[in-house]
Design goal:
There is one protein chain. The chain is built from eight helices and nine strands. It has 242 residues and is an alpha/beta fold. The longest helix is centred in the last third of the chain and has 16 residues.
Length: 242
């Protein structure tokens, strides 16, 4: 356990069933070096879903916990069930989290269970990050999903990253804040290369950055005044505003 509590983050992964909570947890553990191979639910070798019935059903049936260290911060991961039959377990587990990552898949978008766990996060006053999963699947559409999110949870939901391609052509992402493109390497190495933003995405990235900065500015009177005066917000101000 890290002694500096200021560098400890405890977050719950929440969503409807099958959205990819456990797969995200496995990716975090792999990238952080906790595991030496990327565990996969479909192959029954996930370290988060280890109960025999979970392996058989390829689904999380009870909350699982794990820890990783990233950039000198301790990440306490709470992987909750997505099945409605285990909703009580999900709600109880969320009470021990500082924040929540809401996983929404790029095919089905917001579902009833998504709305339910969002209500729990509202109840516990938890900050949320939305992770759009399954971008490599057929019919995946990030921008449709983002619109669905905004229609259900408000226009204050802004994109921090947007994908490069979708389905079979999904090859990476663009970080809106840094203006950098990250392209995946082959296989499950988890490694990426940093590239310039593709020309066909430049205008779209600019639009999303404007939305992001405007949303951050509206988070406080001080930032809004600075924004309306035409001044650039610093990275620190953007971070605190988010």
């Amino acid at each position: 356990m890290k002694e500096d509590v200021g560098k400890v983050r405890t977050f719950a992964l929440i969503s409807h069933g099958g959205a990819g909570k456990t797969s995200l947890a496995e990716a975090i553990l792999f990238d952080a070096g906790v595991t030496t191979r990327l565990g996969k639910v479909d192959e029954g070798n996930s370290v988060m879903d280890y109960e025999p019935e979970e392996i058989k059903r390829k689904a999380t049936m009870s909350t699982a916990f794990n820890t990783a260290v990233w950039n000198k911060h301790q990440l306490n991961i709470i992987d909750t069930p997505g099945d409605f039959n285990f909703i009580a377990d999900t709600k109880t587990s969320m009470q021990g989290a500082d924040a929540a990552i809401v996983i929404i898949d790029a095919i089905d978008g917001v579902r009833v269970q998504t709305e339910k766990v969002w209500e729990f996060a509202d109840e516990f006053e938890q900050p949320r990050l939305i992770f759009v999963s399954k971008m490599d699947r057929e019919r995946a559409d990030f921008f449709r999903t983002l619109e669905d999110v905004r229609n259900n949870f408000g226009k204050s939901c802004v994109a921090l990253q947007i994908p490069i391609g979708a389905a079979e052509s999904f090859q990476g992402l663009v970080d809106i804040l840094t203006g950098k493109a990250f392209l995946f390497t082959q296989g499950d190495s988890g490694k990426m290369t940093v590239e310039a933003i593709p020309a066909d995405l430049a205008d779209r990235v600019g639009k999303f950055r404007d939305e992001l900065i405007e949303g951050v500015a509206e988070s406080s009177d001080e930032l809004l005044e600075k924004y309306l005066d035409g001044q650039e917000l610093t990275p620190e101000e953007i971070g605190s505003g988010l």
